[in-house]
Amino acid sequence: MKKRAKNLCLLLASLMVFLVPLPILSKAEPLDDSNDRSKDQTLAPYFFIQGQDSSADHFPLKETKVSTSINGIIAETYVTQTYANEGQEAINASYVFPASTKVSVHGMTMEIGDQVITAKIKEKEEAKEEFEEAKSEGKSASLLEQQRANAFTMDVANIMPGDTIRIQLHYTELISSVDGTYQFVFPTVVGPRYLSGSAQEETDGWAAAPYLEESTAPPGSYEIEVNLSAGLPVSDITCSSHEIQVTSDQTSSHVTLANPQDYAGNRDFILDYKLTGEEINCGLMLDSSEDGGENFFMLMVQPPERYQPEEILPREYIFVLDVSGSMNGYPLDTAKELIRNLVSSLNDTDYFNLVLFADEAVTLSDRSLSATQDNIDSALDFIDRSEGGGGTELAPALRIALETPRKQDMVRSVVSITDGYISGEREIFDIVKNNLHTTNFFSFGIGTSVNRYLIEGIAKTGAGEAFVVTDSQDALKAAEQFCTYIQAPVLTDIEVSYDGFDVYQVEPALPAALFAKKPIILFGKYKGDPSGTIKITGKTGSQDYTMDIPVSEVTPMETNRGIRYLWARTRVEELTDYGTSLEIDEAVQKEVTEIGLTYSMMTDYTSFIAVTDTIRNQTGESTDVEQPLPLPSHVSNLAVGGYMAGSEPEMILLLCGMTVIMFLGLIRRRACAAKKRRTL
Predict the structure, then answer these.
(1) What pTM does this model have?
(2) Any bridge partners for residue 169, and if so which?
(3) What is the reported pLDDT for 363?
(4) Long-range contacts from 377-381, C-beta under 8 angstroms, 24+ separation
């Protein structure tokens, strides 16, 4: 009896120890704003704490204005960022911001007072050195660098007290349609990135950007406007992400935010629209140089209507579901709804498995299961018991999925479902490409501001398709789109030939097959006057498909000037963004650098730099600050590194729950042992 009482006292003492609050990262003293912190990747990312004793302005970005004009299928976007120093000392500001993975950034200006400085494109290291030199000399300067295809950093030096600096970026992208619906997406915030293993060495500190706590917006404003001019009446304009106001005439529409007071910078701006009358089907657009330089073309071919094959081979699907901390709550609930719809729509002849991952991965079964109702019910129960927490170790989860024993004579597809908040994307692309000969890869991005570089990259390297689900209402629609998409290829054995049209450097490579009503889009250069014929051939089921496009009937237009930037972006993408190796060789670096310098375009190896001629900071003293980012809408504090050492009330509740479970488990084990002794 005394021994039992002693054990109980020890257990209660342990309980009291667990209940003592631990050091709280998000409630700690303000972190040092020095650059030394950003080099410590163990703190990446972290919560921003507004210092009480500093006169530096920690929110120098006061305003972001986005203005996009869509002419036909080419979008020209100007992003104007206004920085202001409302503090008492000179500051150097650093800011991380996103863009679409498809954009070609080819222009930047810096405005200070009545000075307007056009930024120059230079090799990345040269631009960095020039920026640091200008910073140390007391000159105002701005540096734009690409960290990922969809993540950039802006550094501004020597913003003096009372200064207002405006940076304007200019970029071009292509807007294409799927099943008749065109979609323009403007990402507004970079979600936090989980760093693991090689990713910590790969990043250059940008992933350590500070974040505000969830549902907290920075004090600056965010405005978005879009002008649609397609040459045809525009209809069915909708925005699933923001409330909008639309004014239209016969062939154009002007879209703005309905409520500018509702902070728009914490979720992707997603605008869908359709064209009344005939859709832009098969078309050729030409851009010719008046000074004897390069000529460019863009070819867009809509595939024929879907055919219905009489037989579909049995299929195996392995769903890889992210249950990490950034998926906690709303995103994971949406992902679960998506999984329910996907698994429930499988045919009786199909097989499936589930891999759930955070810091570690667990599988539903050691091998794929037939899609019976009992197995589907077990799968739904398996995901219903999952809650978000921990890191985002996607690479090991994919390897586990691919190591699952294969079913003979079945088409295997791996379907990733994640918000994509990781930093080591190249490792994922390598895994996909190394298994492309045996597996199809599809990806679903879950959330309002997913990492589209990863989501779209998985699909691009895996010859599949990417889907983005922003809320639970989209889950059923996305599942239906996926099921329709994979039923059968629409067009196979695709070939494009050029008869009498002297073309070269055509990008990208042709796909082996198209699975949906999605256009083939090619960019290239041509010599001489446009003439001859472009022929597209392929097969739809058992039938041959042929289409001829006469080149001489197409007139080069000034409005097609953006094609050269789309070609350059596509070429760089093929070389680097989804490359087959974590290491880019010297020849590729040289070619990408030359493309960036030739077309005044930002790449991994070229950056924009703007510097004032005059010295504005005479003392040379300044404070480095990092512009804190809002967490994407519906993303919880658990996405930020260190938060599990985080919010004090939540941490105490977590420890209490863990301790109670341990206590009840010990009582149960002792009761079972006592019962066993009595039985004996």
Answers:
(1) 0.77
(2) 79, 108
(3) 93
(4) 379/339, 379/343, 379/352, 379/354, 380/339, 380/340, 380/343
